[in-house]
Amino acid sequence: MQESPNPQRRSERSHRATLKAALDLCAEQGYAQVTVEGIAARAGVSKKTIYRWWPSKGAVMLEAIDEAALQPTGFSDTGDLAADLHQQMSGTLSLLTDAGIRSAILGVLAEGLQDSQLAGQVHGSLFKPRIDSFKERMRKAQQQGELAAEADVDVALDLLYGPIWHRLVAHLPLPDGPYLSKIIDAALAAVNRRA
Amino acid sequence: MQESPNPQRRSERSHRATLKAALDLCAEQGYAQVTVEGIAARAGVSKKTIYRWWPSKGAVMLEAIDEAALQPTGFSDTGDLAADLHQQMSGTLSLLTDAGIRSAILGVLAEGLQDSQLAGQVHGSLFKPRIDSFKERMRKAQQQGELAAEADVDVALDLLYGPIWHRLVAHLPLPDGPYLSKIIDAALAAVNRRA
Amino acid sequence: MQESPNPQRRSERSHRATLKAALDLCAEQGYAQVTVEGIAARAGVSKKTIYRWWPSKGAVMLEAIDEAALQPTGFSDTGDLAADLHQQMSGTLSLLTDAGIRSAILGVLAEGLQDSQLAGQVHGSLFKPRIDSFKERMRKAQQQGELAAEADVDVALDLLYGPIWHRLVAHLPLPDGPYLSKIIDAALAAVNRRA
Amino acid sequence: MQESPNPQRRSERSHRATLKAALDLCAEQGYAQVTVEGIAARAGVSKKTIYRWWPSKGAVMLEAIDEAALQPTGFSDTGDLAADLHQQMSGTLSLLTDAGIRSAILGVLAEGLQDSQLAGQVHGSLFKPRIDSFKERMRKAQQQGELAAEADVDVALDLLYGPIWHRLVAHLPLPDGPYLSKIIDAALAAVNRRA
DNA sequence: GGGTAACCGAGACGGTACGTCGGGTCTTCGG
DNA sequence: CCGAAGACCCGACGTACCGTCTCGGTTACCC
Question: Which of B104, B127, B194, C58 could form a disulfide with C111 if both were Cys (CB 3.0 to 4.6 A apart)?
Answer without folding.
Answer: C58
